[in-house]
């Protein structure tokens, strides 16, 4: 499937991969043995990831071609199927789903209330919604950016108000890239207790630091408070570390461009100084004085004074 900038596909690396895979990963603790709906499932990779742990997964997308592609690409999953549908008209019966997953969907249309009503319709009593949304303040306003695929992005308060209308309880998290130091095992190992530290030279403590200006919000929503208590604070690490390599490559290129700019600037300064020296030498030479005198005589004869 070709990457258009709207739907993420597994062949694309970099920041978008980190963001999308991390979102699906935080679902794992909530979907084991559950019936799951992945609304706006796109290429299908996310639905397939969920199907590894869920009892059943239905991926719904508005694009007929995309659904046909996903159905072929992931046909080996017996507990996974893809259907054509929309956020406002989900082709599933009432009270048939335990968990609805909706990542980077809500900003692509303006039927937010209808979408939430449809999600509540297909959810079983006490069912859960895990949803992400770009933070309009950081994503668009502060960046002075307009995504051509987005129809209506939400500010934090707007997202909270929308969720509160349809769910009794919710926890909203922020997602963005950050820089940190990792201490990791030299061989891959499973871990449920990854520690986080923060602080400075005066005080270090074991806590998860909240960062300013999240690029995305990730919300866990349910009418049962106990079900949303599972922590989702987490870190996604890509084995190829491709994002760091991209960053280092760009930094190296910028440094080389800066060096070249410095070289050209110094060369221009040298040439300017040489020109100044020539002008100064000409001004002090007898030839220059004679030429200036001759120019003055021509002006006198020309204007008659």
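-> sequence recovered:
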């Amino acid at each position: 499937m070709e990457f258009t900038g709207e739907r993420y596909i597994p062949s694309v690396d970099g920041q978008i991969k980190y963001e999308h895979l991390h979102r699906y990963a935080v679902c794992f603790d909530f979907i084991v043995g559950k019936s799951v709906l992945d609304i706006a499932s796109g290429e299908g990779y996310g639905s397939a990831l969920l199907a590894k742990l869920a009892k059943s997964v239905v991926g719904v997308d508005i694009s007929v071609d995309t659904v046909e592609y996903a159905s072929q690409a992931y046909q080996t999953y017996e507990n996974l199927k893809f259907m054509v549908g929309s956020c406002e008209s989900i082709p599933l019966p009432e009270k048939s789903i335990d968990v609805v997953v909706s990542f980077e969907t809500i900003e692509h249309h303006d039927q937010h209330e209808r979408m939430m009503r449809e999600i509540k319709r297909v959810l079983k009593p006490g069912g859960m919604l895990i949803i992400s949304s770009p933070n309009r303040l950081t994503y668009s306003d502060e960046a002075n950016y307009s995504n051509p695929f987005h129809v209506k992005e939400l500010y934090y308060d707007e997202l909270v108000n929308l969720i509160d209308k349809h769910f009794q309880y919710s926890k909203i998290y922020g997602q963005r890239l950050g820089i940190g130091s990792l201490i990791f095992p030299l061989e891959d190992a499973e871990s449920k207790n990854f520690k986080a530290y923060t602080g400075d030279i005066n005080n270090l403590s074991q806590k998860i630091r909240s960062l300013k200006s999240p690029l995305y919000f990730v919300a866990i929503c349910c009418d049962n408070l106990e079900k949303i208590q599972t922590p989702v604070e987490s870190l996604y690490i890509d084995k190829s570390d491709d994002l760091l390599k991209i960053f280092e490559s760009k930094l190296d290129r910028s440094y080389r461009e800066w060096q070249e700019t410095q070289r050209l600037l110094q060369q221009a300064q040298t040439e300017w100084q040489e020109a100044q020296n020539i002008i100064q030498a000409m001004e002090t030479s007898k030839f220059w004085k004679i030429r200036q005198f001759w120019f003055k005589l021509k002006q006198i004869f020309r204007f008659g004074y």
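The radius of gyration is 31 Å.
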